[in-house]
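For this section, I looked closely at the sequence of one protein beside the tokens encoding its backbone, which the following lines show:
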Amino acid sequence: MTSLVFIDGDLGTTGLQVRHWLTGRSDLRLLQLPEEHRKIAAHRAEALNDCDIALLCLPDDAAREAVALVRRPDVRIIDASSAHRTSPGWVYGLPELEAGQAERIASARRVSNPGCYPTGALALIRPLIDDGLLPADYPLTIHAVSGYSGRGRAGLEDHEGSNASAAVPFQVYGLGLHHKHVPEIQQHSGLTHAPVFVPAYGDYRQGIVVTIALHLRLLPSGVTTERLHSALQTRYASQEYIDVQPLGGDVDAQRLDPCALNGTNRLRLAVFGQPQQEQVLLTAVFDNLGKGAAGAAVQNLDLMLGLSGLRELEPVELAGSIHGA
């Protein structure tokens, strides 16, 4: 019997993309509420308890409320919000985090989808800490630029609404250095101190570039650009959705396009070195609504359904989502 899946919040930016990628699949059934019932707690509670897996694409407070509405013990939950990413009893939904993580997700009752920025940061940091190449107490700084859809409804309204011509083309935020993703990154990376996290939004709809600079002189003796790159290659050699770019070439001529993987669940990692200055740059490119949100949710759903194999996800048009985000 095919599993029944309910997307709570299927009109937001993440929910729309999840629904697009699940519609028409024969290995599951989608439970959808009529328009007039979507915001009525009693109807949502009924749907949440009738389904096999509930996928929450909601703001944090609404996600906590949805979890509280679930009374039937057999209902499994994937929460795409940041409400439970560091909570006990929830399995962190980054299958590539470490050996056995995909299996833990597959058997879990409660899965918390990773944040978009942490997905790229953790994919770069965690293998290096696990291999002893990056000290857990390294004074790490993470820079990241996302498309404006990462702001949800507010970003879409600013850049696609009636006053779009006045939208700021680039803005750095989180200047108080207490962005909600920092505890998530620290907990799941193995860092002993919180990293400095500098996020920004650009004037494009979706896609992310994450960059992390390292000084080789602060790393253990013998650590080189090549060893860092090899560690990432080894870690992700068997992973379907993560690609590690080869070293070499004219790196000064290379560019990182944040939109290069839009509409997919893929994550592209790269390592760039400057041997004279003993500097290294770690980079990640992916779709903030793909591997950074909806694609990751679908990947986790497939694990929980006992399905495997690469699913190429077709791009979804977000037009009209301004009022549903």
Q: What stands out?
A: Residues 156 and 322 are 6 Å apart (CA to CA). DSSP finds nine helices and 13 strands in the chain.
